[in-house]
Amino acid sequence: MPGACEIARPRMLASWLDRAYGRPMGTGNVVGLRSTAVRSSVALHAAMAVSGLIMVLFLLAHMYGNLKIFEGRQAFDGYSGYLREAGEPLLPRTGALWIVRVVLLISVLVHIYAAFTLWHRSRSATAGKGGWRYETTKNRRGVQRSYASFTMRWGGVVVGLFVIYHLLHLSADYIAPGGASPSPYQRVVNGFSIWWVVLSYMIALIALGFHLRHGVWSAFASLGTNSSVARRRVLNLVATFVALLILVGFLIPPLVIFAGWVR
Amino acid sequence: MAELFTVGETIRDTKAPAGPIQDQWEARRFGAKLISPANRRSLSVIIVGTGLAGASAAATLGEAGYRVKSFCYQDSPRRAHSIAAQGGINAAKDYRNDGDSIRRLFYDTVKGGDYRSRESNVYRLAEVSSSIIDQCVAQGVPFARDYGGLLDTRSFGGVQVSRTFYARGQTGQQLLLGAYQALERQAAAGTVEVHTRHEMLDLIVIDGKTRGIVVRDMVTGALETHLADAVVLASGGYSNVYHLSTNAVGCNTTATWRAHRKGALFANPCFTQIHPTCIPVSGEHQSKLTLMSESLRNDGRIWVPKEAADGRRPGEIPDGERDYYLERQYPAFGNLVPRDVASRAAKNQCDAGRGAGPGGRGVYLDFADAIARLGRAAIEEKYGNLFDMYHKITDDDPYQVPMRIYPAVHYTMGGLWVDYDLESSIPGLFVIGEANFSDHGANRLGASALMQGLADGYFILPNTISDYFAKNAGTETTDASHPEAVKAVDAVRARITTFLTINGDRSVDSFHQELGSIVWEYCGMERNAEGLQRALGLIRALREEFWTNVKVTGTNEELNQTLERAGRVADFFELAELMCIDALHRLESCGSHFRTESQTDDGEALRDDAAFAYVAAWEFTGDNAPPILRKESLEYHNVELTQRSYK
Amino acid sequence: MKITLRIWRQHDREAAGRMVSYGVDGVSPDMSFLEMLDVLNEQLTAAGDDPVAFDNDCREGICGMCSLVINGIAHGPEGLTASCQLYMRHFSDGDTIDIEPWRSPSFPILKDLIVDRSAFDRIIQAGGYISSPTGAAPDAAAMLVPKKDADRAFDAAICIGCGACVAACPNGSAMLFTGAKATHLGALPQGQIERNSRSLAMVNQHDAEGFGGCTEIGECTAVCPVGIPLDMISRLNGDVLSALRHNTT
Ligand SMILES: Cc1cc2nc3c(=O)[nH]c(=O)nc-3n(C[C@H](O)[C@H](O)[C@H](O)COP(=O)(O)OP(=O)(O)OC[C@H]3O[C@@H](n4cnc5c(N)ncnc54)[C@H](O)[C@@H]3O)c2cc1C
Ligand code: HEM
Ligand code: SF4
Ligand code: FES
Predict the structure, then answer these.
(1) Ligand 4 pocket residue status of C56, Cβ below 6 Å
(2) CA 20 to 30 Å from B155, out of A170, B161, B550, B641?
């Protein structure tokens, strides 16, 4: 390992100096420990967890907003307008929305940066082969890992691609299956009346559900809150609950529209 | 017998200071010359072994500022065999207020050793015992605690006080990790250089002083010379001369035996301890034996069928047809008689054909009564992990059927002779831990080996070695080109070449197996002149065959486990011979050494203090030449010699 | 019984390796897995072939030396069992068993089934200790340790340092090993002073050795022979984050 001694060596040198000048030995030299640890996998996971959880909070709010579709066009478009006016007059128009957008953008960037850095580290820690690095084809799925846990990375990519597509469709009105419209309500209804739009939305949401099933649990564990076997069980329940809630909450509007109950 | 050895000069000076026993260690420490901290960096020491003794010594000497090189044959210092110790570690803390004291621990150890250990050393061991616990707790060893947060203790190995500190069933592991972590801390600080997967194959002695070792890098096969101002051997015991023992399969005598060949006296080699409660051999393929903690005898009852060759399963044998032989023979102590007594009794039952299970080598250890009395939950709480381990190995569930146990070799009291300073008969060669012979006499008490290893490494050696340095070292420099160093390397290389060129048709393991069965048969639980003579003949013949017919595949310049084993087995052959000679010459029964010729009317061990109250330290005189017996007579001023009785 | 083995053979660190098949006859169900390999090696030696090199020492599940991936599972199919504690009765006549070394670039293969795990020693060197020079210790009874904490420390301290966690981890992470040490020392009052610097130093060394990050999958806990639980990793994460927030080092 070329990198192996990078840290051991300076430490050793420092302790030699310590001895020469009669300073205490052992962990006496801690200069640089924190600045190195900021780039550690542990810190990156924490960044990922925080950014992920911010996105989860956003999704919960977003989901709540989506459900306004049941209150009719007025309410839904009004809500959309409200998002732009919130915070006025303290903030300029769309100010609050932009704050949220910036926070989300930073979260997404941090999340993706950390994801790819850690992905890369895992690859090099397994000679590029991950869990399939053994010659034998037996037990390749491991002993206890869940489907959710080993689809995090590609599942994340699917979610990411979907988010772009989703923004282009419903936020920017750039691609407009079923017909463009200045009314968000109309855009949604137009879009979800088409079977393949609903299907792609469903697939992406299921991927997101899996991502969050493992992601939420993992986020809490990465932040140090998994403190016992009992707590582990609770956190996993929470993760399952959040994942299901978001999955179901987001699926209701498109399915209902597709079924023709809302138009 | 005369032609087997000659008697040499008596050993007179053990360097123990004169005066009352409780003042001796203080006096020695004060009398020892010191090395100033500034000068320590110019002094170097090699430590072979990273068990409790070696790791604690390396860490402590590193902290003190010496330049330390540490060696072990495993891939990490943490894997030394001390890791396997289960039961606990003794210390005269008297936290229980049950009458324990330094003097009592001293007394118990001398008595337990059947009056064949040196008073001065044992007293010092008891004296420093309590600092060991302090040291280990400070390092973070998670000893068992009671609900008040205080350290818990238990009573162990037939003593009446509760002085054994423990960390569940893994005391050795926890103590070793403490020492290992202290060692690695020094490695990071640059004071200790750790060489793993390096096996010591010879000692370098220059002008009568120990100056280094020859090691083989076990990955590349390179032979390396390491020089220093002193060498410490902490290489553990030699139980594996029996092939099957409770020791790790890699444990060996090579380091100590090579030193013996270079002039270090080997003391009491025939004192080997047999542990009564081990899982019996299950077949030809057996590679090692597993110890079941002695504590099981607190609740289990030992029995065999009354009828020889009773083919029934244990559950089918009614109580009236069982012989609870320990309870019958030793009503006072019952199942809790000392290790050697319990072991021998089991052997006798099996020899008489009453042994249980396949091969008839086993006796039952039955928990049915205890389970009925205390409930399964209580037994599970106490012994759960042991029962699981037994179940895993034998596939029998000890909650349902009685365990089968049989004695196995466990510990070797013999080892390189050392004086009060733990220095061998070669100046500058120190020996600590199980590798030396010092403190346990003819029999070791349970939980005392861990105590001794750490006492030697943390507290005793670091004090005595400075005196040697002050008087001897740092004066002459030498390098690997010194003729003695070159000679040693050449000899090692020649031996390796021989192994690789014999190209016979028997594997190293098959020789080891056969050697082990000879030593076990004739120099195991019971010994007599006829058997020992016979064993000597067999060992010599087998050794000859070994050197002409062993098959070692591969080359030296690679990782070659067969070659490693060949070297170890070759040394075991020579040691086995010395063990038999020692056992033959000691015509008395004491501790673990039972000579059938020396027993009381009712078959108990009979000691002969008039003739044998001495340490037998053997001097090497050459291949196939009779060794010289050097006696160190043992004098007891602080304890009274009594015959043991457990009736 | 008769068993077919497919074993990874690799002459040295640099050499290429491959799986080679061998048949072993006369395997008894009471043999340990390693004893079965001993039988194979006797067979190979008799035929003048190079015996299979594999690490082992105590053969009772405590030293952490044995390290076989058996049919793709580190330490084989039985839970809470080190390779040396696995018995042949868990296999059947006619089985084919695949045996490979731990695979991790941080554990280079030295020969056949033997790997170099010195990375673990360097993680301990970085901070896996409590500094307490010999002789400086106060009386052992001077500090009370709540039983709960002592037990927690013990449950972490039983890690045998085998490296199975790394071998099993799809990320090649050694966080279970590192977390166990952080929990052992961090659960005790003696270990508090260095708790922050210890966790930072160990995690830094962990990464510098090239081990991957933990994504909380738990494959490691499924193969760990002594049952080190996943929460010990979380504990280390928490310690590192708190050390990053509070400059106490
Ligand atoms: C199963 C079992 C249970 C036990 N339980 C207890 C107990 O409860 N209480 C108790 O007090 N005692 C117990 N003992 C005894 C005790 O564990 C040992 O006596 C003690 O640990 C020995 O420690 P040591 O440091 O002398 O040697 P070891 O721990 O054996 O270490 C030997 C070291 O020397 C190295 N070495 C050996 N040869 C060479 C060579 N040629 N070249 C390089 N390095 C070499 C090895 O690598 C190793 O590092 C038990 C023993 C066994 C087998
Ligand atoms: C571009 C899109 C995304 C990618 C590439 C991505 C990738 C990843 C990856 C690789 C992980 C690693 C965790 C592991 O392997 O265990 C992860 C974790 C996580 N993701 Fe995402 N993700 C994406 C989008 C999202 C979104 C939209 C959310 C939330 C709504 C989210 C929430 C989380 C959470 C909470 C975690 C757990 C963090 C941790 O491991 O501590 N991710 N993500
Ligand atoms: S955590 Fe478990 S698997 Fe990992 S090294 Fe320790 S004992 Fe082995
Ligand atoms: S050989 Fe020691 S743990 Fe397996």
Answers:
(1) yes
(2) B641
